[in-house]
Amino acid sequence: MTARDRDEEHRVATPLELLFDLCFVVAVNVAGAQLVHAVAEDHAAAGLLDYAMVFFAIWWAWMNFTWFASAYDTDDVPYRVVTLVQIVGVLILAAGVSRAFGDHDFAVVWLGYVVMRLALVTQWLRVARSVRGAERTMALTYAGGVVVCQIGWLALLLVPGAARPWVFLLMTVLEMCVPVVAERHWNTSWHPHHIAERYGLFTIIVLGETVLAATVAVRSALDENSALGELAPIAVGGLLIVFAAWWIYFAVPVHSRLLSSREGFLWGYGHYFVFASGAAIGAGLEVAVEQAVHKAHISATAAGAAVTVPTALFLITVYALHARYFKRGPAEQLTLPLCAVLILLCTFLGHWAVLAAGLVATATVATGVLLGARTARSERRPPQFP
């Protein structure tokens, strides 16, 4: 199993990678549903902490596979079989999300990780057997680091409940250090365009979950003969937010920024906040619907914050990770940060918070389009939107 060419032309996501991503839809959906329940019951602080922990487990499992596959996807029979085993681990992980969220019972999630990580170690050992020198050392370091971390996660099953968040934080740091240590002397040949596409596809997954969550919530409310006038602003505002989030994320050719492993690590790790906030927008829309039909035990302001806060986080993180590198002049640079601030202020508009946030996001896209077209004309280059 040798590395693929970093400069390979027409490199795109494979059907097996798309199947792998599809299985994560289940885990993301369950995590979002648990967040809805926690926020609607006025346990937002505890719910957000649980959500952050569980979503890291989901995201990191996806990361492990995605970056390995970008460098070493040979698409032979052993690779396909081992990847299918990893998919089994993903489904086990998804089955344990509910227990991990409320009860901090990580036994099923840990078991799912065991299945996924043993399969991943097998892949790295195949690489080590096929290469020599620094690349072999890198592959063995990855394999050893994954095994050590997986043993470390066992502490979640053994320590008292109050200590588990601290153990989780420690293991999170150790997990993210493994790639940095492993690639000190040899960098994997991940493909920039392929990685950008894979991250884009996962972004579409979390935004798709947002659309699904909002649709299910509105349908359930309508089935109980709730007033359409209370739900229409939430539905319209939610769709505007999703459309704007998609537009803004895919507005720039981000693969052109991924020129080194250092940039790749920072960009890749930063996407935890993009994915987690993107999925949380959907949970927030469900909360807003439940509050509108008097099922949630929270105020209209708190329900609005459940949408506006993750929306603002999504926009500012996308700006920080790649959008800012393609902006020209103060006006373009300030558009997204200002949008995030205005969306946060929409929180205090009560039942109109979601619609107002959607209109602000839409206005941001329109502003970006106009500014991008103006800059393109002045520099005589093709416009980039927004």
3D architecture notes:
By secondary structure, the protein is an all-alpha fold. It has two domains: 168 residues, no CATH class; 188 residues, I/LWEQ domain (Up-down Bundle), CATH 1.20.1410. Helices cover 78% and strands 0% of the residues. It starts with 14 loop residues before the first helix and ends in a 7-residue tail after the last helix.
Outline the low-pLDDT stretches.
none
**Rg (C-alpha, Å):** 22 Å
In whole angstroms, the N-to-C terminal distance is 41 Å
What string, H for helix and E for strand, traces the elements in order? HHHHHHHHHHHHH
Assembly state here? single chain
What is the helix tally?
13
Overall spatial form = globular
Largest sheet: none
Counting helices, strands and paired strands, the structural category is: mainly alpha
CATH architecture level-2 label of the largest domain = Up-down Bundle
CATH topology of the largest domain: I/LWEQ domain
Q: How many distinct domains?
A: 2
Q: Could you tell me the number of beta strands?
A: 0
Q: Helical amount among residues, as a percent range? A: over 70%
- What is the CATH level 1 assignment of the largest domain? Mainly Alpha
Strand content: under 5%
Mean pLDDT comes to 88
